[in-house]
Every structure is written in structure tokens, then in C-alpha cells.
Design a protein that fits this description.
The protein has two domains: about 40 residues, no CATH class; about 55 residues, Alpha-Beta Plaits. It has four helices and four strands, in the order αβαββαβα. The chain is elongated. The strands form two sheets. Strands 1-4 form a two-stranded antiparallel sheet. The protein has a two-stranded antiparallel ribbon with strand order 2-3. Helices cover about 25% and strands about 10% of the residues.
Length: about 120
């Protein structure tokens, strides 16, 4: 299983204090699958930066889009999709590692309490 740090390294992020160039998503934005789009305008109304315009087809200003994917999450016909490989890799990693609920864990004791791994 790949850790989030390995995913970040593979994608060129700064990890562990080592400065590396970070690949940004500034030229990415969700796309519209025209054959599924009903032009209901939901994507336009939920976009927090008003980056989406409804004309003859759905247009997205990539320079304005902050890649929050509110349009993808709220599209009733699932016509908005994010195909960026970076986003897909992170989404897949998150799904593989965190889609199942885990029971809460309780940690008692202080730094110098007996039976605590910190007391050594």
C-alpha cells in the first residue's frame, strides 16, 4: 500500500521538509460530458468562483477554477467529471485507504505515565 507521502512524492510535491517543485492543477478543471449534460445550471450555481458559464455548452474558465469539484459532486446527471491524472491518483489512494469507517481510538496517559511508549 502506497502512503500519502509516496503519492505526494510521485506527484512532485514537497515532502518531509525537502523542497521539490510542486505540480499544480492551475491548468486543470472539471470537464462536461456533453451527451449526459441536461444544462440544468446546477454546476453554475454551486461554483464558488463563478468559473462556469452556461452557453451553447458548459464553459469553464480554468484560470478561475479552484478545482474544488463542487460542480462534479452536485451534478444530478453526473455530467461533470475530473479527469486530471493527479486528482485521480489522490482520489484512488484516499478511497483505498480511507473509505471504510474505523472505530475511534482512545489514548490515555501523559508523556511520563507508566505503560506509555513515551516513558522510555
Amino acid at each position: 500500500m502506497e502512503s500519502i507521502f509516496e503519492v505526494a512524492r510521485r506527484l512532485g510535491a514537497a515532502v518531509g521538509g525537502k523542497s521539490r517543485p510542486i505540480q499544480t492543477l492551475k491548468d486543470s478543471s472539471p470537464e462536461t460530458l456533453e451527451d449526459l449534460c441536461t444544462r440544468c445550471g446546477t454546476c453554475v450555481s454551486v461554483c464558488p468562483t463563478a468559473a462556469i458559464v452556461l452557453e451553447d455548452k458548459i464553459l469553464t474558465a480554468t484560470g478561475t477554477c479552484i478545482v474544488c469539484c463542487a460542480c462534479v459532486k452536485n451534478c444530478p446527471s453526473e455530467a461533470r467529471v475530473m479527469r486530471d491524472p493527479q486528482v485521480q491518483a489522490i482520489t484512488e489512494w484516499l478511497w483505498q485507504n480511507y473509505h471504510k469507517r474505523k472505530e475511534p481510538q482512545i489514548f490515555l496517559g501523559g508523556k511520563n505515565q507508566p505503560g506509555n511508549s513515551f516513558s522510555k
